């Protein structure tokens, strides 16, 4: 999950990258009009972000870092 103090600009950039990597639009995880509300898919996405962070921290010397696209291509 992203830290609570993440700036709006960084948040938008991360969300656009995730959308592009997954090949999905915002409504895949979010429900309008409250984009901040939790949904089941949003919770799973947060867990996957944690997994990516853990893998990259555990194996820092690997040649390439993993990201959404690693599995969702």
Give keywords.
globular; single chain; mainly alpha; 52% helix
Q: How would you characterize the overall build of this protein?
A:
- It is a single chain.
- The protein is an all-alpha fold and 73 residues long.
- It contains 3 helices and no strands.
- The model has no long low-confidence stretch (mean pLDDT 88).
Radius of gyration (CA) equals 13 Å
Q: Topology as H/E string?
A: HHH
Task: Note the main sheet.
Answer: none
Strand content: under 5%
- Quote the distance from N terminus to C terminus: 21 Å
Mean pLDDT: 88
Topology:
Layout: H1 8-22, H2 40-58, H3 68-71
Please give a quick description of this structure.
With 73 residues, the chain is mainly alpha-helical. 52% of the residues lie in helices and 0% in strands.
């Amino acid at each position: 999950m992203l830290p609570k103090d993440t700036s709006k600009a960084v948040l938008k950039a991360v969300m656009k990258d995730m959308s592009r990597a997954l090949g999905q639009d915002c409504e895949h995880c979010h429900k309008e009009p409250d984009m901040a509300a939790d949904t089941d898919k949003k919770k799973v996405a947060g867990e996957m972000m944690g997994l990516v962070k853990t893998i990259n921290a555990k194996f820092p010397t690997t040649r390439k870092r993993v990201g959404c696209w690693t599995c969702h291509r």
